[in-house]
Amino acid sequence: MSVQKVLDTINENNIQFVDFRFVDLSGRAHHITLPATEVEAETFENGVAFDGSSIPGFRGIEESDMVMMPDTETAYIDPFTDHPTLNIMCNIFTPDGDRYDRDPRSIAQKAEEYLKKSGVGTAAFFAPESEFFVFDDVRYESGMNTSSYKVDSEEAVWNTNTKEEGGNLGFKVGVKGGYVPVAPVDKQQDIRSEMVRLMQESGLRVERHHHEVATAGQAEINFRFDTLTKTADNLLKYKYIVHNVAQQYGKSATFMPKPLFGDNGSGMHVHQSIFNGDSPLFYEKGAYANLSEMALHYIGGILFHAPALIALTNPSTNSFKRLVPGYEAPVNLVFSKGNRSAAVRIPVAAVTPKGCRIEFRTPDSTANPYLAFAAMLLAGLDGIQKKIDPRELGYGPYDKNIYELSDAEKSEIRSVPSSLDEALDALEADSEFLTEGGVFSADFVANYVSFKRQETKDIAIRTHPHEFSLYFDC
To answer: Record's SUPFAM superfamilies (predicted)?
Structure first.
């Protein structure tokens, strides 16, 4: 979309405000809003100034001036504002006109540029399956003398014997009993359908929605794949719509990986493939799962670098409460066709040559999608360039339920890091694949590790409520 087309959209739709947005290290969007009367062609040439020192992990106060440069291709009309508003994603630049090397969106674009320069292909396609919970009540606090949380849902299994207005009507979702039931067990059909409607109006091509496995309102909506940066843009739009539709219904949506103890967590399985023009490069008819050698080497790169990669794809302390055996969590660093107990799954049902892809199942939605998708692509490209064969390294294929293997058999399989600290250690030891082609800078990696270490420290020094159950009577 040209600048003139954006200006025409503002006039034709009586847009009153233009919302310029960017994303921080954690993947959270921020915005500055201009009256539409103040938005001219020069706005897109000069950008919108903001204070980078007020964004955690960006810049110090002595170098705080930064510029948002709008990407006109991302413009869409906000479906929630009372005053007609046009939303536009931006890249971040320094006042000197240089790309800011800590800008996640710029890193994603540099990863796409590096793919083309590598000669491997022309485009990488991504499709995340971002799961979430919709709760009716959310309460938490963390203080000097108190620490607690409580969530609730009309669907939750723990509410089978609670007093409800008008009487308890039953039809609750059991533990691990929530996969695609119909109403009245599934009480959130209309909420998800409204989310889908607004996603479609905002330009997303949605393929389906359904209730997910866990009790208490777990859901999934799938939107169609696109190129790396566009998919990351789409995921931010997706989360924005999910959060705000839930609010409109008097509920609250969260993409937190493990808000409940004892049931499935929320992941973000990421489907990915590489094309050269219109030709798919991951397909080879008759090979294992119809995968080409290039695709196998891509898998090899993902699995080889997985411990470091996970610092970017699962970047929260809560992520590792999901990554434990027993809850369909993909903790095993192996690949397999159609096997959901493997970290990398190759979908085989109703797959065409152009639909041939690999699925990395370990990530979750606390990931910044620009960073996570870029890091996955770079790991895969490293595997292609170095011809890392996952079969030779013992990464599979494992075409059986890994959870049912004997302890001796399981001992031969690498597992994901058990904590964010371990993943950050791995990233510090293995980051060269990220800095190839200048996609990630060494400064970015060091800053990111320091930024995330603070989160692990914040959790480590705080008293946990369960510690009272274990130790108060000592």
So the answer is: Glutamine synthetase, N-terminal domain, Glutamine synthetase/guanido kinase
